[in-house]
Specification:
Layout lengths: L10 E5 L3 H10 L5 E6 L4 H8 L4 E4 L7 H6 L5 E4 L4 H13 L3 E4 L12 E5 L2 E5 L6 H14 L2 H20 L3 H13 L1 H8 L3 H25 L1
Parallel strand pairs: 1-2, 1-4, 2-3, 4-5
Antiparallel strand pairs: 6-7
């Protein structure tokens, strides 16, 4: 089951300050969590992020000082084991599970509570591809393929649908009729052309007119009966 977890402000603990840790933290920071990183060493990028106050760095060897794990994991909402040491990743996973903290071990699906899908974002559209941890390469390939398929018109249609959905709710009480109306807006050739031309505001105007027309026809039909 894919779940879109909102991690803004959540405490996220990452173990591993190498390339894997840097890649994971870079993607995490797009969603504004509170990130703490534990590692013996840090890449230059991670050092810079620490100096800028974007992440908290804890320098130490968790193998010789396991208290770094047992004292920090219980405070976390999510844990990522992002080291090249499979044994260490397993240790991180076990301790996390002992404390009932969700854990993801990079490239080790068998000891993960969840996977990080390959994602892309265009406007309010976010798409994730997951292969159950079996093939990160295929996740990236499919993500790129899907990213090319999502157009700017799709992005604008999301905004248009968000705008008109509230209006439709105010005018039409029946759920199936609301969906039918929203599909008519989606399929309307004039509205689609306006969005293709990048004209969102005119698209909204035409969508509202279409709603009013549908509602007026429905009202007249009810009066006749």
């Amino acid at each position: 089951m894919l779940i879109d977890l909102r991690i803004e402000g959540k405490k996220v603990l990452v173990i591993g300050g190498g390339v894997l840790g840097e890649r994971k933290i870079t993607s995490l920071l797009e969603h504004s969590p509170d990130v703490t990183l534990i590692s013996k060493t840090f890449t230059s990028t991670l050092q810079t992020l620490g100096k800028e106050g974007k992440i908290t760095l804890i320098e130490g060897d968790v193998e010789t000082k396991p208290s770094l794990l047992t004292s920090n994991i219980p405070k976390a909402d999510l844990v990522f084991a992002a080291t090249n040491d499979s044994s260490l990743n397993e240790t991180v996973s076990k301790i996390s599970r002992d404390y009932n903290v969700l854990v993801c071990a990079v490239d080790m699906p068998s000891i993960c509570d969840f996977y990080s899908p390959a994602t892309f974002r265009k406007g309010s559209i976010r798409v994730g591809v997951c292969t159950d941890g079996k093939s990160p390469l295929m996740s990236r390939v499919l993500r790129q393929r899907l990213e090319n398929a999502v157009t700017e018109m799709d992005v604008l249609m999301v905004e248009l649908q968000s705008h008109t959905r509230t209006i439709v709710k105010d005018h039409i009480s029946d759920g199936s009729q609301r969906r039918e109306t929203l599909y008519k807006i989606y399929n309307d050739p004039v509205i689609r052309q306006l969005l293709s031309d990048g004209n969102l505001e005119e698209g909204k105007v035409n969508a509202v007119k279409l709603i009013e027309e549908i509602y007026t026809k429905k009202d007249h039909s009810n009066q006749k009966t």
